[in-house]
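FAQ

Q: What does a record look like?
A: Structure on top, sequence underneath. For example:
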């Protein structure tokens, strides 16, 4: 079989390794050769006319790489995919309709019924539910471990474990995953480490530089950045050895017994994710949303610098406030995760963190606090340019049992903030006046 033909923009053919900001603006895209349009065009189309029947057959057999149907690939989405891959120092990427779909596609590509995974317990609530309940229906068992206990990762391993999973910045404790150490354990056991790097974005941390094999993002958050589109992306380093990994190396009956590793080498995992998983689950990204995400990526570094600057100012302010019991932000020097944050996120450990109100009735105080805010929006999202606030125990983590809540490190009075780009003093003013209205 022929090697896949990847169109490489002129700029990326240069020997020079361009800087992060330059790649944010240019990677994966050249001005449209027909119209000269400089911004990425939105190819709002479901399908693509084939040159002739032979060419069509080659596309379907994956002997040639090209556009068939937007559920599988789209030129606007491809710009987004290549740009994210470039920023993560990866081999390639597959975009999905949401962050949940990115995780699901990754696992559907890798796992079979009877398989197991080892996952950090410091997870986004939806991920915890997906791994626990939906995966169970598919015959997959997830073992959860305290991510900071390195021995626990190894102890949870069984011969049926096919992947390790964790979040760069764990939700909602703000714990920092020791990616290098966990990747070493995963690799000793012959399995890939998958990292959800949503809270960090490729600007603050590139997990693959520390040994992670696959990165997933909810691009809904900081990558899109403006709270306007739901999206996800699966990114592959291309470095994990899938030559003996059953689902990637063995003949795949879902694609006329194609052997993805043998045929595509280090593109094997991504090709299967696209050609089988995306084809069959249908969780494709819309081209219009891909365009909005490209817009988001173009200002990622500028926004993230400002997000972390505001987040640190807010964290310090809250820490010194008499009505605040604790603040869990790895950017604060007394955080148990400060040293790991300096190693993995030297520009700052993101802009999402939690704190708790000092009150004899934490639930009531939380409600009073949230309802007194003017600048912060009370909603279920993070990573918007605007500052956001939520009470996890009653919302994002509401499906978890009391036991699961404790395991996930959530207390009833805990508030989660996602710090936006507003004037710093306005954020401090808003928090201060709301704190004054909460009962002690
Ligand atoms: C939001 C989020 C997800 C899920 O992403 P959606 O785009 O909402 O499907 C997964 N992981 C983390 C860390 C998130 O914040």
């Amino acid at each position: 079989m022929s090697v896949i033909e990847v169109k490489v923009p002129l700029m990326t053919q240069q020997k020079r390794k361009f800087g992060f900001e330059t790649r944010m603006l240019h990677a994966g895209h050249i001005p449209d050769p027909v119209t000269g349009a400089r911004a990425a065009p939105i190819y709002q189309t479901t399908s693509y006319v084939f040159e002739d029947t032979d060419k069509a057959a080659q596309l379907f057999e994956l002997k040639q790489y090209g556009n068939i149907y937007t559920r599988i690939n789209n030129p606007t989405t491809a710009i987004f995919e290549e740009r994210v891959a470039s920023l993560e120092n990866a081999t390639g990427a597959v975009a999905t309709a949401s962050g949940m779909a990115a995780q699901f596609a990754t696992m559907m590509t890798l796992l079979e019924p009877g398989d197991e995974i080892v996952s950090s317990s410091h997870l986004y609530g939806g991920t915890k539910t997906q791994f626990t309940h939906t995966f169970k229906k598919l015959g997959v068992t997830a073992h959860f471990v305290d991510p900071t206990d390195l021995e626990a990762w190894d102890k949870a391993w069984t011969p049926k474990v096919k992947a390790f999973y964790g979040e760069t910045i764990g939700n909602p404790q703000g714990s920092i995953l020791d990616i290098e150490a966990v990747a070493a354990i995963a690799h000793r056991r012959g399995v890939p480490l998958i990292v959800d790097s949503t809270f960090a974005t490729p600007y603050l941390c590139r997990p693959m530089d520390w040994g992670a094999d696959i990165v997933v993002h909810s691009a809904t958050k900081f990558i899109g950045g403006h709270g306007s589109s739901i999206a996800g992306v699966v990114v592959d380093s291309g470095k994990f050895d899938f030559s003996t990994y059953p689902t990637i190396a063995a003949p795949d009956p879902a694609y006329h017994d194609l052997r993805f590793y043998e045929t595509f080498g280090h593109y094997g995992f991504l090709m299967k994710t696209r050609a089988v998983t995306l084809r069959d689950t249908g969780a494709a990204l819309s081209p219009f949303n891909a365009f909005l995400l490209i817009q988001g990526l173009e200002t990622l570094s500028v926004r993230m610098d400002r997000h972390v600057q505001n987040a640190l100012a807010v964290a310090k302010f809250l820490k010194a406030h008499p009505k605040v019991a604790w603040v869990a932000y790895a950017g604060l020097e007394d955080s148990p995760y400060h040293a790991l944050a300096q190693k993995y996120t030297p520009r700052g450990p993101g802009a999402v963190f939690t704190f708790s109100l000092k009150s004899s009735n934490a639930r009531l105080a939380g409600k009073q606090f949230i309802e007194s805010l003017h600048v912060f929006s009370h909603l279920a999202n993070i990573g918007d340019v605007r500052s956001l606030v939520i009470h996890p125990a009653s919302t994002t983590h509401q499906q978890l049992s009391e036991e699961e809540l404790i395991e996930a490190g959530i207390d009833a009075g805990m508030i989660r903030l996602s710090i936006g780009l507003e004037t710093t003093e306005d954020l401090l003013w808003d928090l201060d006046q709301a704190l004054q209205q909460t009962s002690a």
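Q: Is there anything notable about this one?
A: The longest helix spans residues 300-319.
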